Amino acid sequence: MSMDMTTVGDTGLLDALQHEVAVFARRAEQTRLGGVGQVRNSMDRAAYLLLNRLDKEGPMGVKALAASMGIDSSTVTRQVAPLVDTGLVKRTSHPEDGRAVVLQLSPRGSARLEEVRSSRRQLMAELTQEWEPEEREAFCTLLTRFNHALSARMAVPGVPGPEAPSAS
Q: Whose CA is closest to 104, among 116, 115, 118, 88?
């Protein structure tokens, strides 16, 4: 369904929104929102998202991991290789099909992920320290909703997918 911009709302507000999203994306990439202290910028976005997904959903195969992240299996394979090499992710045989490979967060990966999460949590606390708790919650709710809308749009046939450079 195509939407006329006037049915969505004020074009001035939409112009401001798209500008702020662009500024946010640039600043997030520049700072990598990597946290504070020694851990700052110590884990790239792709690695963080892969480790986080394995932590939240448990061991899974490459295809399942790719599907859950909305990216191509070849991208996951390429992004997970250095995580395996550094011992953050383990490759094991599937318990029911020994030919299939399952990716699993290693104890080292779990500890490293928590270290990065803690640093990023501290950064979020600093950036929003003057916000009321309700403002933090509202921002998180709206950002989550925005991200879900982006994901849903990417799932529409004919809409360019996330396989652009630096996809994650």
A: 88
